[in-house]
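Protocol step 4 of 5: obtain the predicted structure for the target chain.
Materials: sequence only (see below). No template structures provided, no constraints applied. The aim of this step is simply to have a reference model before the mutagenesis design in step 5. Sequence pasted as it appears in the construct record:
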Amino acid sequence: MFSGIVEEAALVVGAVKDEGNLHLTLSCSFTDELKIDQSVSHNGVCLTVVALSEDGTYTVTAIQETLERSNLGLLKEGDLVNLERSMKMDGRLDGHIVQGHVDCTAVCEEVEEVEGSRYYKFSYDVPLEMARRGYVTVEKGSVTVNGVSLTVCDSERDSFRVAIIPYTFEHTNFKTIEPGTVVNIEFDIIGKYLARLSSLS
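Step 4 output (structure tokens):
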């Protein structure tokens, strides 16, 4: 379980295909605190640490289904990935409840600078049946973009905007997102539960 508060944008130093899997090796400042089998969110995708190296890097593996649902298959050496370690239950929930189970990808449509901050518009394509089951955004609701917990503005059927403050821009891979960039989206789990319960009544 995660909160969507990114700790660091880590550098991809290796991306190796292995049949349907992808082994990603990353470098970050807290590698020495990681353990084998630990869960870490990568651009919003929960992955397990499978190897630790003495050079300060670690490796995770993404399976085919994960690659099909997320942007991880597009990663290459030199890219930045948003990282968050799993949430401690004795702390404050500063973002929102994030499972690390990406629902789909979205495409950045535009970036608008407004008095020091930036608005990003993203569009996505989910079938109407999925939308009825809560795979949507709502005005002022929560959404996770590349693992970042954000508040939705200008929610439409297949698009939404989010506002990014300078701190988030500098400390996540939002600084690399531009029109055409593919990002990972996780819709709010509470909304999914409510939609499911409504369908049963």
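Step 4 remarks: The longest helix spans residues 189-200. The two ends are 29 Å apart (CA to CA).
Proceed to step 5.
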